[in-house]
Write a structure and sequence with these properties.
The chain is mainly alpha-helical. The chain is built from 5 helices and no strands.
């Protein structure tokens, strides 16, 4: 049915017919089965969506593998949006230590992403 019209497809469905009563989209097509108004393009790119889900999983796994201190700082700064001083206070660490742990944690996450994107 490669060249079938919408009308042909609806008529072939159980309960389908020319009156369009059971077809909720019937008013969107003319009598020949051609769209009255073309549907809008989806803005979601399926390939990008799949890659996004894959990258989210890679980041989740990489985050779990970080040492606890690095993981806590990355979560607090990058996921919860806390400031550096707030994180230092919560974790009772110095500002230089917080910066180093954040940098190392982010570097490891970037390496995990890069390894995935290069394959």
């Amino acid at each position: 049915m490669h060249n079938a019209t919408r009308q042909d497809l609806v008529a072939a469905e159980p309960g389908g017919g020319e009156d369009g009563e059971l077809d909720p989209l019937a008013d969107q097509f003319d009598r020949t089965g051609v769209w009255r108004v073309s549907p809008r393009q989806w803005r979601i790119n399926p390939e990008r969506l799949a890659l996004s889900a894959e990258l989210r999983e890679v980041l989740t796994v990489a985050l779990r593998r970080l040492p606890p201190g690095q993981r806590a700082i990355v979560e607090l700064r990058d996921m919860q949006g806390l400031g550096a001083q707030e994180v230092c206070t919560i974790l009772d660490i110095s500002a230089p230590n917080q910066r180093v742990l954040l940098h190392v944690g982010r570097t490891k996450l970037c390496a995990a992403l890069a390894a995935t994107l290069e394959t």
